[in-house]
TrEMBL record:
Species this protein is from: Paenibacillus arenilitoris
Keywords: ATP-binding, Cell membrane, Kinase, Membrane, Nucleotide-binding, Phosphoprotein, Transferase, Transmembrane, Transmembrane helix, Two-component regulatory system
Highest taxon listed in the record's lineage: Bacteria
Chain ranges of the Histidine kinase domain: 41-261
Keyword Lipid metabolism: no
Record localization: Cell membrane
Annotated coiled-coil segments of the chain: none
GO cellular component, one term: plasma membrane
Example of a GO biological process term: cellular response to phosphate starvation
Protein name listed in UniProt: histidine kinase
MF GO annotations: ATP binding; phosphoprotein phosphatase activity; phosphorelay sensor kinase activity
């Protein structure tokens, strides 16, 4: 609570009173604090790859260029770091568009089964590489939903790529779509048999840049923004997203979307 006192002056009578203003600044301060943290995080996330790029470029300059094998390796590192920075900046731009509502939803009637099958297809190479089995299950009666396909594809890709990243070889991933009874919402889940998330981290897991293991996430090419982007997109659709996880057993992320068009017509 911020209290400010302003004396009331009257030219003829001097000070005749005081105005006290009580202002609840906790919300405002929290916002300010999280903005400061965000800027610090962005700077740090950009600085890390830039420092790496600089030192590898210097090493090339200082003679590594003469050795073919070494220079190829160094150029590889520089390319990887550059790609990660591009991913990071792309994610940041996407978040900022979502924050300022500059990404109007283009909802269409969408076949849910087809959409989920295509997610698994997009990742078939990575699935094979890690011998991970993927299964898609869609409730019988469930046909179409009213959603922005590009945006929901982004949500599904973020969740599915996490499931692959954080699941050991030989695991399984299930993609399911259900219509819970007495609800006009569609519930989509991505369930893995992966490493899971410790209880103490669950509360911050949707925060921007929050990762259980920074080094691991970076090594996997993660930006720490995937879940926050997913949450913003789901929110824009009028749905909710939640995550359940057991350490060393697996993680399930579930999000809901309205099945009906605005106005209540079936999609
Ligand atoms: P990242 O780019 O690091 O994957 P995300 O925002 O997508 O960023 O996820 C944040 C963090 O949540 C990850 O760094 C990881 O620690 C944890 N996480 C997300 N999905 C899973 C999952 N399926 N299994 C285990 N941990 C996960």
């Amino acid at each position: 609570l911020r209290v400010t006192f302003t004396p009331i002056h009257r030219r003829d009578k001097g000070t005749t009173g005081t105005i006290a203003v009580l202002q609840d600044v906790t919300e405002q301060e929290k916002l300010e604090q999280s903005r400061r943290e965000f800027v610090a995080n962005v700077s740090h996330e950009l600085r890390t790859p830039l420092t790496t790029i600089k030192s590898y470029a210097e090493a090339l300059n200082d003679g590594a260029l003469e050795e073919r094998e070494l220079s190829e390796r160094f150029v590889g590192v520089i390319r990887n770091e550059t790609e990660r920075m591009i991913r990071l900046v792309t994610d940041l731009l996407h978040l900022s568009r979502l924050d300022s509502n500059q990404a109007p939803l283009r909802r269409r009637q969408t076949n849910v089964h087809e959409m989920l099958d295509e997610v698994a297809d997009r990742f078939s190479f990575q699935l094979r590489q890690k011998s991970i089995k993927a299964a898609v299950r869609v409730d019988r009666g469930l046909k179409a939903a009213w959603l922005d396909r590009d945006q929901i594809d982004q949500v599904l890709d973020n969740l599915f790529s996490n499931a692959i990243k954080y699941t050991l070889d030989g695991g399984t991933i299930e993609l399911t779509a259900k219509k819970p009874a007495d609800s006009d919402m569609l519930a989509i889940s991505v369930k893995d048999t992966g490493i899971g998330i410790p209880k103490k981290d669950l509360i911050r897991i949707f925060d921007r840049f929050y990762r259980v293991d920074k080094a691991r996430s970076r090594n996997m090419g993660g930006t720490g923004l995937g879940l926050s982007i997913a949450r913003e997109i789901v929110k824009a659709h009028g749905g909710t997203i939640s995550l359940h996880s057991e350490l060393n057993e697996g993680t399930t992320v579930t999000f809901t979307l309205p099945l009906l068009r605005e106005g209540g017509e079936p999609a």
